[in-house]
Amino acid sequence: MGETVLALRDITRSYVSGDETLHVLRGVNFELRAGETVALVAPSGTGKSTLLHIAGLLDHPDGGVIEVAGRDAGRLPDKDRTAIRCSEIGFVYQFHHLLAEFTARENVALPQMIAGTSPSVSRRRAEELLGVFGLGHRLNHLPGKLSGGEQQRVAIARALANAPSVLLADEPTGNLDVSTADSVFGELLRVVRGSAVGALIATHNEELAARMDRVVTLRDGVLVEG
Ligand code: ADP
Ligand code: MG
Predict the structure, then answer these.
(1) Residue 40's pLDDT is what?
(2) pLDDT under 50: residue ranges of the chain
(3) ABC transporter domain spans which residues (predicted)?
(4) How many structural domains are present in the chain?
(5) 48 CB under 6 A from ligand 1?
(6) What's the confidence (pLDDT) of residue 96?
(7) Alpha carbon of 33 to ligand 2 centroid (Å)
(8) What pLDDT, on a 0 to 100 scale, did the predictor assign at position 2?
(9) What CATH number is attached to the domain comprising 190?
(10) Residue 215 lies in domain
């Protein structure tokens, strides 16, 4: 296994609504290594999305430390967190969240251009990545003209566009039928295993989870080996 690309130390997070406090994360510890695939399998409402958003620097924990690619991301100003998120973290949501008015190629090229890569290099890498996901013939399609499985493949390609250290996916095939989920997930694993990215993937699907290197679960607000 490679070096640690994501470390969570004693992460806590509560939600306050009215006079009730819901302690979702009560001290999560976790390490993800380069090239490793980890499934996060836990029932709805246990805090998977909360944890992934915190790990992806999309949300702040109440306490604890988040290290991404060896940097303590929690203490940085927003501008630096955004830069780390852009270059080191790829995020895949259950619903593709592609930009509707941009083609598949543009959706995958955009995060690279935001990171400072030239348009021509970004386009070329987008084409290459979409080709890897079997979408070489869908480069100029708008998301609305793609099937659910194709949309999710584009979203995964986009998440990998900047060759991040960490890939986080929140039930990425949860919206797909069983056989499409199976093939999209297989491609995701194949691409991840062919690269150095470490992947933490929330899924309800135990069969898919079993194909990953290890399984973790959330129990009473802490992460345990599943
Ligand atoms: P999962 O992804 O495992 O389904 P979530 O992280 O979405 O779990 O939610 C964990 C718990 O926190 C749930 O009980 C949910 O209702 C609650 N929760 C999530 N987001 C908020 C929020 N913004 N405000 C209040 N409660 C929230
Ligand atoms: Mg969720």
Answers:
(1) 98
(2) none
(3) 6-226
(4) 1
(5) yes
(6) 87
(7) 23
(8) 84
(9) 3.40.50.300
(10) 34-60+76-225
Residue nearest to atom 13 of ligand 1 (CA): 45
pLDDT on residue 1:
66
Q: Which residue's C-alpha comes closest to atom 27 of ligand 1?
A: 15
Check pocket membership of 112 for ligand 1, CB cut-off 6 A. Answer: no
> Which numbered ligand comes closest to the C-alpha of 172?
2
Query: pTM of the full predicted structure?
Result: 0.96
Residue 179: CB atoms within 10 Å:
9
Residue 126 lies in a domain: yes
For residue 68, being part of any structural domain is answered with no
Ligand 1 atom with the shortest distance to the CA of 50:
6
Let me know if residue 94 belongs to a domain: yes
Q: What is the 3-state secondary structure (H, E, C) of the chain?
A: CCCEEEEEEEEEEEEEECCEEEEEEEEEEEEEECCCEEEECCCCCCCHHHHHHHHCCCCCCCEEEEEECCEECCCCCHHHHHHHHHHHEEEECCCCCCCCCCCHHHHHHHHHHHCCCCHHHHHHHHHHHHHHCCCCCCCCCCHHHCCHHHHHHHHHHHHHCCCCCEEEEECCCCCCCHHHHHHHHHHHHHHHHCCCCEEEEECCCHHHHHCCCEEEEEECCEEEEC
Q: Does ligand 1 come within 6 angstroms of the Cβ of 179? A: no
Q: Is 15 inside a domain boundary?
A: no
Distance 31 CA to ligand 2 centre (A): 20
